[in-house]
Structures are given as C-alpha cells and as structure tokens.
Design goal:
This protein is mainly beta. Helices cover 5% and strands 44% of the residues. The protein contains five helices and 55 strands. It has an 18-stranded antiparallel sheet that branches. A hairpin with a 2-residue loop joins strand 47 and strand 48. It is flat, with a radius of gyration of 38 Å. The N terminus is likely disordered.
C-alpha cells in the first residue's frame, strides 16, 4: 500500500512539474525570519538568542502523514556558499502532515557548530563567524531516506555590518592637565554606531582607567598589564570623575578607553575591535607647565634595562642646521649623542662621514658611519639615509641576508664558530662587555659580546640608528648535551642607550631533538622540545632565560613518523591546558607506522587524548564492540576516529596505482601499545571487473582489524563464480603471508546448497570445503590464481 502511495505521490509531482512548470510545488514549505541586530558570530542564535533566528517548515503532502527529514543550513555571500551543513551530520527531524514545525535555536544549535559545518563544495572546514557584507542564512529540508531536497530553499538575508567603536573626545590624547584643587573632571566620547544599518540598539559603555608604568611610551602595549585605577559601566557617552573615585596623582601617566556593547545582546559580535575605542593618555602637572619636561631636544634617555617603548618621539624638520658640521660637533640621534669625527656635505643634501656614539648598555663607544644625515637647528638628526655602527669585515652581513627566509643559511655553523673563536682567542677577548670601560676614549667596532657568568654569550653584530630609535642585530649559541649546537639570532631589537624593548629575544635557527623526557605512562611522554618557538630572552645585560617548548609525544617504541622515522608529537588544541593531565582534542598528526606493523601506513589528522585519571573522554559512541576495556574508569590513551590505513603494496590485488587504502576507521592507543584498530573499505571490486584467472570474483568489503599491535590480515568478503556451479559462491577469506612470503587468500565456503545445472544436481558443501588463491605478478599485473576443494553431498535429479 505504501509503495502504491509513493507511486501516486511521484506521479502527482510529475504532473505538477510538467503542467505548472512556471512554479515548482514542494511537499514542504519553508519560511523564516530574524530579529536584528545581526551578529557576525552565528553561535549566539543557538544559545542566548534562540528566538531571534527562526524557520518554519510545513508538510503539505496530501498523502504522507509524516516524513523523516534532515536539515541543510548554508551561509551565502554574493551568491556563493561560504559555509554549509556537513552532509555526514544527520539529526533526524519528523514533520507531521499540515502542521508547522518551528525550527528555532534549540533545533539549530547543533547546526550552528563549526564541527558540523564545511566550506563551499563540501570541502574544508566551516566557521560561525561570517564576513562583513550582505549575507544570507538559508535552510532546505531533505528527505532522510532518499537524501533529496523536498522543500524550497528559504533564505533570511540582511546587511551584516560591524559598528564602529566609540571615539574618545576629552581628555584628548597626550593631554597635559593642570592638577585641580578638587578632583572633578569629565571623560567624554562620541558614539559612532548611531544611524548604522545594523544598529546594536541600546548600548552600554565599559570605562577603564589605568596607570601606565614609568618609562612606558606605548600605552597600547602596556594597557592590559597596567595598574587598574577605576572601572565602571554607563549608558551615557560621558563620565564625571569626582573625589569619590580614586585620587589621580601629578606626573603620572594615565590611559583610558571605553568599550561599547549591546545591552540586549552583549555576546553578539556587533562592533569592530570588539567595541574598544583607541587608548588615550593624559598627565597631570603642578605649577607651571614649563616645569614638566616636554622639551624633546633635551629629553633624557630612560634608565630602564627593559622598556615598553624605545621610540624617542616626533622631531621637527622645519629648520636645518645653519652651519656646516665639523669635527667634535655633538649631534643628537634619538636618545644618543653622535660626536662627529669627519663630515662631508651640506645641510640640504645631508652629510656623509664618521663619528662615535657612547652606548652605556654596551659599556663602550661605538665607531659609526653615516650618510645623507640631515640635522635641524637644535643639532638633532631628523633624517638619515644610514647611521650604522662599524663592524669588522669578517663578520659583515648584507642586510638582505638577514631576512627570515635567509637568516638560517647566513648565520650558519661556520659564522657562529668564527664568532666563538673571535671572543675566546682573538681580538674579541677585549670586546666583551665586562672587559670594556665607557670612560675609555678609544671607540671600538662591532662585534661586542654581552656576557654573564655561566650563561651563553650574546654577540651584538649590528647597531643601526634612526632619528628616533636604535636597532640591534644579535647572535648567540648554546651547546647541547648531545653535542649539537643551537644557533640563535634576532634582528632589529629596539634599544635605548641603557636598555632594550621589553620582551626582546632571539629565536632558534635550527631544530634539535627533544630532551628531558618525562614518562606520563608507558605510551606517552612529556618532552622538552627545541623548535621554531624556542626563544632566548635577553635584556641590557645579555642572556636572561631560555624558553623551551613542552610537547606530548607517543613513545617511539610504539610508533614513529612514516616520513622520517621520527617521534610523533601530539599538537594539543588547548595550549593553556596542563599537558601532564591533558584531556581533549589533538591536531595535525603526521602519517605514522606502528613498529609491530612496519608495512602498514596510518593516516590521521586529529584525535582525542585522555591522560587524566579523574575525568573521562566521552568515547562510548566510538567504542567498537570488539574492543572491551579491562577497566574503563582507569583507561588512558589516544582515540583516532578518522584514521585510515594503507596496506602493504604487495596486498594490492586491484592493479590500481599505489597501495590500497581503507576508508576512515578507529584506532585505540592505550597506555602501552596500539590496542585495537578497525578499518574497512566497501565495494572495491565488482564481478564484472574482478578476474581470478578464469573465475569471476568480487570484493564487496575489505576489513583490517588490529588487536594488541598485531593485524589479523586483510579480510575479504564477496562472491566467486566457480565454473562447475551455477550459483555464485559467497566467501569470507583472509589475505596473509605464507611460509615463502607469498600472499595467499584463504576463503571459507558457506554450507549452503548450490545448483549444478550441468548435472541437473544440487551440492551442499561441508565445512571441509575451501577456496584458496595465490596472488602472483605476471607481466607487471597482479592476479589471483585460484584452486578449490569442495566436499559435500550431491543430489542428482533424474527424470524419465
């Protein structure tokens, strides 16, 4: 009856589509609506704003009382799909005849999950953060069984634009304010979202005021780590700061900003820069303004060993120096003093020449060369083609060779070894900071070594001065216990006469093997690694600390990388988690080989790791029935849900290019071994294409199971057409190596009756029957050569 109904239903649809071709009629009608403002982060519609994005689906089929469906969500821009529901994700939804199903955030929530979204053409990964512009959020309903659309594609559309954050007004940036007798000042800012096409509605403002540390010039860098002074929330674009609030002090640098957010939808992404305004600074002064040091021509250099901002500040270039530069003239270069030795040129085209610059941090004077240097009437450099410390020719490096893609080959072992010899045996023994004296009138060339007891020496191989800053090139090295030499370098480290920019560091140029292994279990280890993230921190005294990375790895006695037999490291997606007790996802796994299965290659990009003893992964749904945990509560290990296995090349019976590779399967690695694996590949070979010598055969399914680090061979299931039988024999066999290292297929014959038309008979095999085949290569092609043994009972049907 149901088949008859389906036929009528199909004929009805065909009639409608051919007769009324101008308008297609769908069994399910979808409509929808959304409530602004439109968030660029769609996740909020599945949680806090579950009623703000709604679709309605109505089943208008006159025959079917109910239909099992699935939803297909897509996000589009300019007619192109950006993200869409992964076709592998299915959450059945039953629609009832003539009843409207409301599809709100409670139903859409799993569809608004990046794990269930893919990119255009069903490739790549999805995201819930949509780009700015005119976007569409579309929904279609698919028949769950037939996997075809049965509804119209309805799209909710609109302008998804971020609003501009507030603009600070008073006090103005870098304002100098006379300290009032009574604390009473007003902070104001301008709302920039008014009139927006995606207005956030009622807006609140979070006001923040901090005190910036002394010696800091870039308030943006220091704001989040600065000392909090006052914070509040207001609905008006102004704040009165009175005596009731914390007292503000003279000669202290304060910074303030405001953050705008929607009162009704605080978690929605509606503002640029997360709603933050620019950071503005101001300072109180007492008495006359002239008492506050704002004269940039005599701005004293900060004495800090580490400083947030080394920039000297703006420099006037309105009036050039009126007289030519001569020997012994002192010219200001940012915070530094340049004493002229000789100069050639003029004030208009600039001066070329040589001089010396005292550098207290290096405890000496540096010989410098300059070109196209232009000086204003305050004897301050406002432009220079180049001002650079002289460097011994042996260690000269072309600046082009210090770029990221070339520096490793430039600062190579040969260069570093020359530096080591220079400071230990050559002239460099007298160019170490601890051996130098700034009072010595003799200036020196680079390199200069920054040394500390029992710490790597850091060599300064370059100093370049600009009108507002100074930049250092640094090189260092460190010997490893395995006699490997690590090379470190840094370019353009900003500096003042007395210190370097906070966070200054050298990066490692060459990688080395992990050291200091700590066993978490027999299967997993915590390693100290040296990779591209390894840093040598430094300050005005030189070496400060060596920042090494920590990484989880699988014990190489269990498995290794396929490409280089190296260690398989586990890249965790939560970098803030404790690695010793990590539980969660891991990413970017390389292809690997299990040591007990050297001819099998495993491919997996991600997995789930559980190293905790008191919290468990939710892996029950992925747990195969064949893998029984001895004690699930104490299980620790790695689960790979999307792993594929590449069989040894000699197993390739299809003559296809490359090895046979399974579909995605599951692999469990517990505390000490590869405990279990389950892989398969369906519909590999049809009866029309499979030829086992003169017998036709099919491979309907290939399976590979791994138990305790050992594979049970490749199991094949399919059919064989044996010439003496009229029916196709089904078989279940195993590919395995024999004593002579040959690949054989040993297949069981099911004990079911088979026709033998040539003899007008039937044959019922016993369990002693079998089919065997040897995989041989002939003229470059691999093929099975079969043989069979059939024991059983033959029943011959004779007539008159």
């Amino acid at each position: 009856m149901k088949s008859y109904k389906n036929l009528l239903y199909t004929l009805a649809l065909l009639f409608v589509s051919t007769t009324f071709f101008a308008q297609q009629v769908w069994p399910v009608q979808v409509t929808g609506s959304t409530i602004p403002p439109r968030s660029l982060d769609l996740a909020v519609y599945g949680n806090e704003r579950s009623q703000d994005l709604i679709f309605n689906a109505t089943l208008n089929d006159p025959i079917e009382a109910a239909v099992q469906t699935r939803l297909q969500l897509s996000v589009e821009q300019n007619g192109n799909v950006i993200y869409q529901t992964d076709p592998n994700y299915i959450s059945p939804l039953t629609l009832t005849q003539f009843q409207t199903q409301v599809i709100d955030g409670s139903i859409l929530n799993p569809y608004l999950n990046p794990q269930n979204l893919v990119g255009a053409n069903f490739t790549g990964t999805g995201s819930l953060e949509v780009p700015e512009g005119f976007n569409k959020i579309c929904l279609e309903v698919y028949d769950l069984v037939r996997n075809v659309p049965i509804s119209n594609k309805f799209c909710i559309q609109g302008s998804f634009q971020l609003n501009q954050p507030p603009q600070t007004l008073l006090p103005t940036c870098d304002d100098m304010i006379e300290l009032p007798e009574t604390q009473n000042m007003t902070f104001t800012w301008a709302p920039m979202h008014l009139g927006s096409s995606n207005s956030p509605g009622l807006v609140e403002y979070q006001f923040e005021l901090v005190q910036i540390p002394d010696g800091t010039f870039n308030a943006n860098d220091a704001f989040d780590s600065a000392m909090d002074v006052y914070q509040t929330t207001t609905t008006t674009p102004a704040l009165l700061y009175t005596q009731a609030e914390p007292q503000l002090l003279p000669n202290k640098l304060y910074a303030w900003r405001v953050k705008a957010f929607s009162s009704m939808h605080p978690t929605s992404k509606l503002f640029q820069n997360e709603g933050y305004s620019q950071v503005c600074t101001f300072q109180f002064y007492e008495g006359e303004l002239e008492n506050v040091n704002t004269n940039l021509t005599s701005n004293p250099a900060p004495t800090n060993c580490e400083i947030f901002d080394t920039d000297f500040g703006p420099i006037s270039n309105n009036e050039s120096v009126p007289t030519p530069l001569v020997a012994s003239d002192i010219v200001k270069v940012g915070y530094f003093d340049l004493e002229i030795i000789e100069a050639f040129g003029d004030a208009i085209s600039g001066y070329n020449g040589t001089g010396t610059i005292p550098f207290p941090m290096l405890n000496t004077k540096l010989n410098v060369n300059f070109s196209e240097m232009r000086v204003n009437s305050d004897m301050r450099v406002y432009y220079a083609g180049n001002i650079e410390a002289a460097l011994d020719q042996t260690f000269y490096v072309d600046p082009v060779m210090m770029t990221p893609n070339l520096i490793n080959s430039t600062i190579n072992n040969f260069y570093v070894n020359n530096l080591k010899d220079f400071f230990s045996n050559g002239l460099g023994a007298n160019r170490i900071r601890s051996q130098l004296n700034l009072a010595n009138p003799t200036a020196v060339n680079l390199p200069i070594g920054l040394d500390q007891d029992d710490a790597p020496l850091i060599a300064v191989i370059g100093v370049r001065f600009s009108p507002r800053n100074a930049y250092l090139n640094l090189v260092s090295w460190k010997e490893q216990e395995n006699n490997e030499q690590l090379r470190f370098a840094a370019t353009a480290v900003q500096s003042t006469p007395n210190g370097v920019k906070t966070g200054a560091h050298l990066v490692v140029l060459n990688e080395a093997a992990g050291t200091d292994l700590v066993a978490i279990s027999d299967g997993f280890q915590l390693a100290t690694v040296i990779d591209e993230d390894t840093q040598m921190e430094c300050n005005c005294q030189g070496y400060k600390d060596l920042i090494l990375g920590k990484a989880l790895q699988i014990n190489p006695s269990i498995l290794v990388r396929e490409d280089n037999d190296g260690t398989v490291f586990l890249n965790v997606n939560n970098t803030n988690a404790s690695l010793e007790n990590y539980i969660g996802n891991i990413e970017d796994l390389p292809n690997f080989v299990v040591n007990s299965l050297p001819d099998f290659v495993f491919k997996s990009g991600s997995g789930r790791l559980d190293l905790k003893s008191d919290e468990k992964l939710n892996f029950n749904t992925a747990l195969p029935a064949a893998y029984q945990l001895p004690d699930q509560n104490n299980w620790r290990g790695l689960i790979l849900d999307n792993v594929r296995v590449e069989l040894p090349e000699e197993y390739n019976f299809t003559n296809s290019n490359g090895a046979i590779e399974s579909d995605e399967g599951t692999l469990f690695i517990d505390d000490n071994q590869v405990a279990f694996g389950q892989f398969s590949k369906s519909n590999m070979l049809s009866l029309e294409n499979g030829q086992m010598y003169s017998w036709a055969y099919s491979v309907d399914k290939l399976s590979v199971n791994i138990v305790d680090g050992q594979a049970s061979g490749a199991q094949l299931e399919g059919g064989i057409r044996v010439p003496i039988f009229s029916d196709i024999f089904t078989y279940n066999g195993t590919l395995e190596n024999n004593y002579f290292d040959e690949i054989n297929l040993a297949a069981e014959v099911p004990e079911t009756s088979r026709n033998m038309d040539m003899w007008k008979a039937t044959f019922v095999p016993t369990d002693a029957s079998f089919i065997a085949a040897r995989l041989k290569e002939v003229n470059g092609d691999r093929s099975f050569f079969p043989r069979g043994s059939f024991s059983g009972a033959i029943s011959i049907q004779l007539t008159d």
